Amino acid sequence: MNPTLFLNGQRVDAREARVPALDRGFLYGDGVFEVLRAYRGIPFALEEHLGRLRASATALGMSLPAPISRLRTEVALALDAAGLPDAHVRVLITRGLGDLGVAPANVRDATRMVVVTPLAPSAQNPYRDGVRAMAVRVPWRAAKGPLAGAKTLNYLANIQWLREARARGFDDAIVLGDGDVLLEGATANVFVVHGDTVTTPPLDAGVLAGLTRGFVLAQAAGAGVRAKEAPVSFADLWTADEVFLTSSVREVVPVVMIDEHEVGDGAPGRVTRALHRAYRALTPAAGSPMPWDD
For residue 293, is pLDDT > 80? Predict the structure, then answer.
């Protein structure tokens, strides 16, 4: 299916859409984006995503080229035009055109884009079977620099982590920083379960403040789970009863193997599924079958 695309406020055929070759988003990855999921045509946590988009732009010293109210409208228009019951929504902003050179100068004509596509089908059911993750070790501050925690267009490190994991037969990557301290996934936050306690790395480690991460932390007590933000070591991963990933599109995904080590009993666990149910109850899909039942 051809994506539904709004470029600078106008609906454009995705095959005909054009962005200037000298746009800084193309030249340098100089921009920000958000990805969210729509359930039954309703974008979930849209205000939170647009708020984070503005915060990421501020971290880059950018201003949004349109008010939040306009972006909200364009997301609604794109979803209505797509007519999909469930969808992947991407909102993207670049700094725009400027003088050649890395430092932005005389910048103008920022690009904004809203793209709606169907949820990508999976050859397997990761919610029923879990996923296998490869541990990737990086000098974290060198990899993220001053933009740790911002969601920028420069996703090359994340692409490389995921590419390397897939090349070695894994589904995903889990990133470890200096001292083998857990940070995040290639495109997700990571939680570790010991008994009825779930732990995720703190934001001051430089990880992305994932919105699904925040919802899961907030819903944990109601699901009978103690949740906390604290440093997590690689040894904690090795001894965990369960490990799971969170992201806006994938929601909550169990990890059943890290490298060649089986997590827990090698199957999606009770706490992971309880928290996934609690998260799903917040969304417009509340009450529908859980994805491991499909």
Answer: yes
Helix (H, G, I), strand (E, B) or coil at 146: helix
- Is residue 93 a contact partner of residue 32, using CB atoms and an 8 Å limit? yes
DSSP 224-279: T-EEEE---BHHHHHH-SEEEEEETTTEEEEEEEETTEEPTTSS--HHHHHHHHHH
Give the integer Cα–Cα distance in Å for 146 and 158. Answer: 16
pTM of the model: 0.92
CATH of 4-118, one of 3.30.470.10, 3.40.630.30, 3.30.450.40, 3.30.450.20: 3.30.470.10
Q: Which architecture characterizes domain 126-293 according to CATH? A: Alpha-Beta Barrel (3.20)
- Residue whose token pair is 């999606």: 268
pLDDT in tens, 89-144: 999 999 999 999 999 999 999 999 999 999 987 778 999 999 999 999 987 654 45
- Residue 121, classed as helix, strand or coil, is coil
